[in-house]
Structures are given as C-alpha cells and as structure tokens.
Amino acid sequence: MKQLLGSFLRIATTVAVALAVVVTVLGLLVRQPSARVIPFQGIERADPARLEAHVRFLSDEVRPRNTRHPEMLDRAARYIADLLAATGGRVELQPYRAGGVACRNVRTRFGPEDGDLLVVGAHYDVCGDLPGADDNASGVAGLLEIARLLSTHAPAVPVELVAFSTEEPPFFGGMDMGSAVHVADLLQRKVPVAGMICLEMIGYFTDDVVPAPWLLALVYPRTGDFVTVVGRWQDRRLVSQIKAGVKGAGGVRVCSFTGPPILGADLSDHRNYWYAGFPAVMVTDTAYLRNPRYHTSLDLPETLDYRRMAAVVDGVFNAIVTMQPSR
Predict the structure, then answer these.
(1) What's the pLDDT tens digit per position in 126-146?
(2) C-alpha–C-alpha distance, residues 18 and 11, integer Å
(3) Phi and psi (nearest 5°) for 123?
(4) With contact defined as beta carbons under 8 Å apart, do 170 and 88 qualify?
(5) Do residues 229 and 281 lie in contact, with contact meaning Cβ atoms separated by under 8 Å?
(6) How many other CB atoms are there within 10 angstroms of residue 42's CB atom?
(7) For residue 287, what is the DSSP state?
(8) ∠ CA(247), CA(253), CA(255), 5° rounding?
C-alpha cells in the first residue's frame, strides 16, 4: 500500500511540475516580457481634462451614435473633423454606405508623404442606444489627443489617424465596417502599410481584483490597473514597440498578449488589417474582461480614469514618434 501511495505521489508531482512548466512557457510566449523602454520623447503630455471633455461630449451630447440616428453620427464626425483640422493635420472624409445609411470615416495625415504608412484608428459609433463612454468614446478621445501631440512633434514616418464610423453590430465582421472600407481603399491604392494601432476602450481602470478566466488569471495581473497591447505572433515587433513606448511614458502598467485571436483578441477594427496581411495591434483596457459596465447604460464618463487614460495616450504617442522608416 505504501509503495502504491508513493508511486501515485511521484506521478502526481511529475504531472504538476509538467503542467507548471507548460503554463510558464505559454505565459512567456503570450505575454512577451521585455525590459525594453523608450524614454518619453514628447514636448507635451496628454491632458486628462481634454480627454474627459471629449468623452463627455461624445457620450452626452451626441447620444446615441449609430446608423439608427445618422444625425448623431454626422455630428460626431463634424466634431472629430473640426478638432483634427485644428491640429494642422490634412483632414479628409471617407464617405460610404452601411445598411443603406450614409456614413463616413474621418482621417488625417501627419509626417512625411513617402514611406510605409502607420494607421492609428478608433471607432466612434456605439452599440445600441447606449452612452458608450469607454466603448469607444475613450478611444476616439485618445485619437484626438494623439493628433494634438503630433502637431507639436512630427513623426518620422507617415501616420494616418482614422475615426471609423461603423464597428458595432450589426456591421461587425462585415464589409460595412468603417475599418473594412478603409482597408479596401488602402489595398486599391496599393498603399504600403507598416502597421495599424487600434484604440479600443482605454479608459476603465481599477485597483480592485477583477474576475477573469482561470487561464488568464495564471498569467496576467488580477487587478484591473493595466493596459494591454494585443497582437498575433507575427505582430510581436509592433507589440514590443508599443509596450516600450508606454513603459517609457510612465503612469500606467502595460502588459501584452501575443498569440491566436482567442478570448476576444480580434474583436475590434484591427481584425480587418490582419485579414489584409498588415501587422496590427489593439490597445485596450481589456473591455468586458474587466469593465462590468460594458455594453450597458452604465458605461458613463464618470466611470473612467482620465489620469491613467492620459498615460496610455502618452505611451502610444511615444511609440509612434520613435518609429523609424523601413530601410
């Protein structure tokens, strides 16, 4: 009996050690730990008050923003276009139709005319008749602040900022997504693309422990005080650049996921750039994995952390302005 018990304990210990090794290796592969840091290069920092003002306007004044209320989508597009124009960027409207409704992406360019293009985008529509403060007024506010910062520090590579009109259902996953329209235009014009950065929910943070799938809980922090850069294995260089930029800017913890599109890793506009063969990443506060107000009427401006949101914007901006042209 003692011999059987000893054999069982040895087998159980071996299995436990093997599982621990597998989890550790997988954790290292998906988290891509790195000591690389890019010191902050900006002249100015993102302004939490400006970010809050943008979120409040989009969530309160132009609610709801979807194709059932095209006048609100138009008002949001005008707001975004006016602020982008004020930064000195070259603003263009990209009209298209989604579900029979006239829509438009708003885009602007910074940096040199020639070279592989870096796209930074965020959708400004909402799911249903909801305020959509985190999802995704936060991403649009971040896009507007990045434009303001780029006006003070020109990037070395051509950068196109795009506010997409239709990302949410019923358009998600189809060719009527604003980002799908943008990708189709890039492909038609044969524009060389260095990569795409998608800002998708960047404003909700908490120092409390948040529920998470058990496998993620083994690899990632249990508290909701970090921002995540999400990419596939082939996007790891871009993931590393964004992480290093956020680390150097300071003010918020940054993690990454580098792996297959599981657990919602492809649930935003970057998916369309993946399918076109372009490197792309999503910068996110992990959305529904953290924010209990996701896709509810409680996704309100006062629930966001604008200080840490500004740190995310600083980090993405820092990564952009330190990117170098392809050789």
Answers:
(1) 999 999 999 999 999 999 999
(2) 10
(3) -90, 145
(4) no
(5) yes
(6) 16
(7) G
(8) 85
Domain boundaries, the chain: 37-321
Which secondary structure element, helix H or strand E, spans residue 157, and what is its range? none
Q: Which structure tokens are listed for 76?
A: 């949001």
Q: What is the mean pLDDT of the chain?
A: 91
Beta strands in 73-220 (DSSP E): 90-98, 101-110, 117-123, 159-164, 193-199
CATH fold group of domain 37-321: Aminopeptidase (3.40.630)
Name the burial class of residue 274, with classes exposed (0-12), middle (13-18) and buried (19+) by CB atoms within 10 angstroms of its CB: buried
Residue type, 127: C
Cis peptide before 64 (omega within 30 of 0): yes
Rounded to the nearest angstrom, the gap between the alpha carbon of residue 43 and the centroid of all alpha carbons in its chain is 23
HSE-CB of 78 using CA atoms within 13 angstroms: 8
The candidate with the shortest Cα–Cα distance to 182, out of 116, 93, 279, is 93
For residue 319 the two structure tokens come to: 């990564």
Angle in degrees, CA 175, 177, 178, rounded to 5 = 120
- Of residues 164, 160, 158, the one with CA closest to residue 269: 164
Return the closest-CA partner of residue 104 out of 186, 162, 173, 172.
162
- pLDDT recorded at residue 33: 66
* DSSP three-state, residue 109: strand
- Count the Cβ atoms, other than its own, within 10 Å of residue 214: 6
Strand partners, 94: 105
Per-residue pLDDT of 251-271, as tens digits, reads 999 999 999 987 789 999 999
Task: Decide: helix, strand or coil at residue 66.
Answer: coil
Is the CB of residue 224 less than 8 Å from the CB of residue 290? yes
